[in-house]
Every structure is written in C-alpha cells, then in structure tokens.
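Morning. Coffee machine broken again, so started the prediction first thing and wrote up yesterday's gels while waiting. Chain of 114 residues, entered below exactly as on the submission form.
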Amino acid sequence: MIKQTLIGLVVAMTPMLAAAHSKSEETTPADGATVPDVPELSMRFDDPMRIISVTLTSPDGNVKIERETGMDPTTEFRAMPLEELAPGSYRFDWRGMALDGHPMQGSFSFTVVQ
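Came back before lunch.
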C-alpha cells in the first residue's frame, strides 16, 4: 500500500518537476544549421537562466568568444566569436543555473561554409 502511494506521488509530481526547469527554446545559429558566417551566438530560454560557462569548439580545439551577457539570470544569452569562424563544424556547450537552483547544461552544433 505504501509503495503504491509513493509511486502515485512520483507520477503526479513528474509534470511539476519537469516544468520547474528552464529550457533553451531557440539558438543562433539554430542547432544543426549550415551558415555562411556567425556574427553572434545566442540562446533564448523560457525562464531566466544564469549562464556560468560557455565553450565553442571546432575540430582544431577551443575558439575564443566574448560574452556580451553577464552573470545575472536572463532569458537571452549572447556572445560573439573574437575572429571570423573558418569553414567547419562547431559545437557550443553551456552550463548554467536555473532560478530554482538546479544546474543545467546543453549544447548546439552548426557548420560554417564559404
């Protein structure tokens, strides 16, 4: 009986727990996109997120970027590559903290062509 009650509580709370975390709704460039250039990198969230760290990598290693968005919670994060990105595949990884205190992370990838 207790086991069934606990299972019922977990099932009932799952939608609330899933809704409590901020999620990335849109990225620039879009995940999987092929683009001619990348003047900025951005992410939009459904709830404010404190972005703690970001990394842009290519097959040759890390690419230098400059954050435009500070460390305050925000619904839109922006950064710019310090140099024009050469043709190739790139991956943007991020780590953050949702307003409810939960650590979050994600990534998106894109390809630059001439």
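The beta strands are 24-28, 33-35, 41-58, 61-63, 65-67, 74-81, 88-98, 103-112. Going to sketch it on the whiteboard this afternoon.
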